[in-house]
Amino acid sequence: MGYVLDRRQWLKTSALAVAGLMAGPDFLACRRKSSILEQNSSADDFIMLHNNESPFGISPNARESITRSIHLSNRYPHGYYSDLIDLIAERENTPPDHIILGAGSTDVMVTLIHLAKTEGEILVGDPTYFDFIFYAKRSECSLNKVRLNDKFEHDLEAMEKLVSSQTNLIYICNPNNPTGSITPKDKLQLFCEHASKKALVVVHEAYHEYVEDEAYSSMIDLVKQRKNVIITRTFSKIFGLAGLRIGYGIAHPEIIKKLNKLSRNFAPVAWLSLKAAVASYRDQAFIQSVIEKNKQVKAFLYEELDKLGLCCIPSHTNFVLFKVDQDASELTKKLEAQKILVRPFGLNNKQWIRVSCGTKQELQTFISSLAELV
Ligand SMILES: Cc1ncc(COP(=O)(O)O)c(C=O)c1O
């Protein structure tokens, strides 16, 4: 993957690139809804490369489990929460009382934001996962944003300097969205150890299962050491269950208890989602096959973008952010007119497009349309 950087001498110019990534006010504008989808066209007509969903479907075991469980839909799913919780607890080697489930990881994050919504501020990288920023703003939280460093990592030194008695939540998205970059484990671990003495640290690991780089590691060990840290993950990405809305958080039971008290309702996750998650989580062969397919299409994407002379940031996820020399929103609209959906990022006068790793066929169509437009 490093070859994308080497060939384009990306790191040499990354300081400039980072200046471009500074999230200006237009960062929020990137959340524009697809105007075509709003006109009620069927989503099936579109090549959906804008939400980082998995194009590789769901585990056959999950499909079977959903079919077998459909008759349970008239019942509340109470008793079944523990099946998934126990499974995650066993895999992560934590007691079950360390786990909270939610309707997607966003659900858990929104509860965390409510927990933090007292006076004080939330410390975040910039740019980072849009929805976290969106919900924090919607809850009128005060945000203290710290620009990513020149390697697109969270600038942990700068962040640590800003941790104060005013900080009540620290959000680290690793790998980060929209950059796809990782923040190295050693630095992150030290940062979390220090910062968690003053505030709850959320390490959001939505793309955890995709990462192969040894510089990365989950921060789950800190949870086991009873640090003031919560890990959030999702079934929406590698497991392909975005439409079933299921995710989880792992933290010390005192944190989990507080979150449960604030949780939206008594059963936020549906039966079929729980069933699908259990079956997918157990299906290692399926997960491995998605990792492999994602790697292949990402390599294809890198190569094709490179042929078009477009620089991208090496990604540890299922999407790629690349820079364009024209208005990214206009370009997105032109692609949309051809029924291809991507996300524009207009960041401090530099223009970027984030494209999800669709199937090879979808990416071939995307690349041929893009080639005519750049
Ligand atoms: C960093 C990150 N977290 C979470 C999600 C998805 O959230 P959920 O688990 O609620 O589906 C995404 C989807 O794009 C994401 O990029």
- Identify low-pLDDT runs: 1-37
Number of domains: 2
CATH class of the largest domain: Alpha Beta
The N- and C-terminal alpha carbons lie at a distance of: 23 Å
Structural class: alpha/beta
What's the short version?
This protein is α/β, with parallel strands linked by helices. It contains 16 helices and 12 strands.
What does this molecule look like?
By secondary structure, this protein is an alpha/beta fold. It has 2 domains: 2-56 and 285-373, Aspartate Aminotransferase, domain 1 (Alpha-Beta Complex); 60-282, Type I PLP-dependent aspartate aminotransferase-like (Major domain) (Aspartate Aminotransferase, domain 2, 3-Layer(aba) Sandwich), CATH 3.40.640.10. 43% of the residues lie in helices and 16% in strands. The chain has helices spanning 2-8, 14-21, 26-29, 35-38, 60-69, 81-92, 105-116, 130-138, 156-162, 185-195, 220-224, 253-262, 271-282, 284-307, 328-337, 360-373, and strands at 47-48, 99-102, 121-126, 142-147, 167-173, 200-204, 229-234, 247-250, 319-324, 340-341, 343-347, 350-356. The strands form 3 sheets. The protein has a 7-stranded mixed beta sheet with strand order 2-8-7-6-5-3-4, with helices on both faces. The chain has a 3-stranded antiparallel beta sheet with strand order 9-12-11, sandwiched between helices. Helix 8 links the parallel strand 3 (121-126) and strand 4. The model is unreliable at 1-37 (pLDDT under 50). The protein binds pyridoxal-5'-phosphate. The site of pyridoxal-5'-phosphate has 14 residues, from helix 7.
